[in-house]
Amino acid sequence: MYTNRYSQMVQEYYVRRLRAIMAERAERLNRLKTRAQAQAYVRRVRAAVRRCFAPFPKRTPLNPVITGRDEYRPYVLEKVVFESRPGFLVTGNLLLPKGRTGKCPAVLGVCGHSVEGKAAVPYQSFAQGLAVKGFVVFLLDPISQGERFQFYRKDGAPRPPLTQAHTMMGTQMTLVGDFFGTWRVWDAMRGLDYLLSRPEVDRSRVGVTGNSGGGTLSTYVTALDPRVTMAAPSCFICSYLANMENELSADAEQNPPGIIGAGLDHVDMLLCYAPRPTLILGQQDDYFDARYVRKAGEDLKRVHALLGSRGTAEVFVGPRGHGYHVENREAMYAWFMKHAGLRGTARERGVKIVDAKRLYATPRGETHRAGSRRVFEFTAERAGALAKRRGRPAPGTLQAAARRLLGLRQAKGAPPYRVLIRWARQNDIPNRQAVFAVESEPGILVYVASFGRAHPFMHAPTGKVTLYVGHTSGEEDVGTIRAVRALNTPARSLVVVDPRGIGQSRPQAGCARQASFDQVMSADYFHAAAGDMLGESVLGRRVFDVMRAIDFLCAGGATDITLMGRGLGSITVAFAALLHPCRPRARLLHYLPSYQSIVDSPLYAWPLSAFPRGVLKHFDLPDVYRALGRRFTRTQPWNAHMKQGVQ
């Protein structure tokens, strides 16, 4: 009954946006003709990338502890725990080559998305492989992997796996304006602090490598830490455009806020300190599209050549699927040996996998049991401090902040619209009178359907109107929610509005393998993350869609408009009522009481698309509700898990 007429609309909207941005980027690169121009490009990229990750915390004492030391035939392994932030423990294995005199080159190893973290076979393999060849290697556990799990059953649900755990923490910290990738790269940079403090290490020969999520992290370290002298990220460098076109969702750390809006692509992060020796590693059958891996390599080589450096940029695409397989590891060994001045074979030898428990740096293999704080605890603490600092904003200040965070501009006049005649004459939905597609901006059609009082199907209803925005589909709510059906009265027309990504434009294919809005890696999340990287709010665009629907109704003769929203729609409606010049009344059903309730809950169900970045620096939802005053009512709150009642 509720066919998704525009199910690909949001996806194609973002594809068009990214194609245009990447075409402009390609033109900028093509205009580089001289060394001075290339140097200016590098400086611009470095500043832009830094803004996407800022701010970093202050460096605090690492308080490193070596908790164990094991000797193996070709190397010594030390088990290390340090604090990247006060009370936040990081576990790692330091591998020291045997039989070497003088200071050795070093490599920071960062792991991909494996439950075992540093104990996973590919990561043990490259760490041992490098140690055998004469490198000191420091291999770290990522957050929520290895010894650093963040969620337990006492937090309210079974532990979410890997990327879902990262995205759960990353989405939550959006509310306080933080970025999970900054947390990840800060752990790595503090690991580099420890590695470079070791007397065995030559600080002039320092590499970084990792695969998949570790490829992401090694790219970030390459972009943000000038102490790195050579880099080899694996199975990450591709293109934001390729990932959008191929509908490849990524976890929170892989979506730096504002980076696409700044006109940057993956490879630009490897140019921040060009011409630093950099090897891009990929795989022929990886889901990171090999076509774009090779194109990234061409961009890297071109800028290095303009800077007068040849032989410092290279690409190796292995023959397999996603993973740090031996061919890629050996390519990395050869690259690091070349640029560290080490002789010998790049063939992998001397690798013997060690049981994970023998690699534990904490007594029970869990930093939380060893006294570490957890990421969401820091986020809740930060939110509490912001609440005390901001106080209660004045109405004008609140509206200005909301417009800025949502990225709303003032639209003039009535929007163009289409009359969906065939749909209007269908009888599959009782009492539906007319259907329209309102163009809120180029490429975005807002579905508007009227119910109740009969009127010419070519025209919007006049007089008194209730505009309804549903949780995930307005028309489904009309058919299933009694309180919504009751809005259809002889005195008032009911108009259902589906803003982008809701109802008739809800994605149903590709990345929507997990179609539910409360799934961590859903299509809704994918598009919200794309918006964040563009520097805009998906919630803000949905609010704009509703405001343009109001403009459409007013232009058609509506004289008295009341808004009603349920679930996700309740947040959209609250902001539309706050910001639309006609000051409509608003009713909320199954509403979120506060964003604070999200940061106070380790696990939650509300999606990224409901959260304006950094909102808790300025206000919370109760401030919005208070500002609406007497023109506002609400009933039946939902808690952080989208369940009835307040937790």
Distance between the termini: 35 Å
Helix content: 25-40%
SSE-based structural type: alpha/beta
CATH topology of the largest domain: Rossmann fold
Overall number of domains: 2
Concise synopsis of the structure shown:
The protein is an alpha/beta fold and 647 residues long. The chain has helices spanning 9-30, 35-53, 121-132, 162-174, 180-197, 213-224, 240-245, 290-306, 326-340, 375-390, 395-406, 421-425, 474-480, 482-485, 523-534, 538-556, 568-579, 596-599, 621-628; strands at residues 65-71, 75-85, 88-97, 104-110, 136-140, 201-211, 230-234, 278-283, 313-318, 417-419, 432-441, 444-451, 463-469, 493-498, 558-566, 585-589, 632-635.
Notes on the protein architecture:
- There is one protein chain.
- This protein is an alpha/beta fold and 647 residues long.
- It has two domains: 46-383, 3-Layer(aba) Sandwich (Rossmann fold); 415-635, Alpha/Beta hydrolase fold, catalytic domain (Rossmann fold, 3-Layer(aba) Sandwich).
- The protein has 19 helices and 17 strands.
- Strands 1-2-3-5-4-6-7-8-9 form a nine-stranded mixed sheet, with helices on both faces. The chain has an eight-stranded mixed sheet with strand order 10-11-12-14-13-15-16-17, with helices on both faces.
- Helix 8 (290-306) links the parallel strand 8 and strand 9.
- Helix 16 (538-556) packs across helix 17 (568-579) and helix 17 packs across helix 19 (621-628).
- The protein starts with 8 loop residues before the first helix and ends in a 12-residue tail after the last strand.
- Residues 509-514 have low confidence and may be disordered.
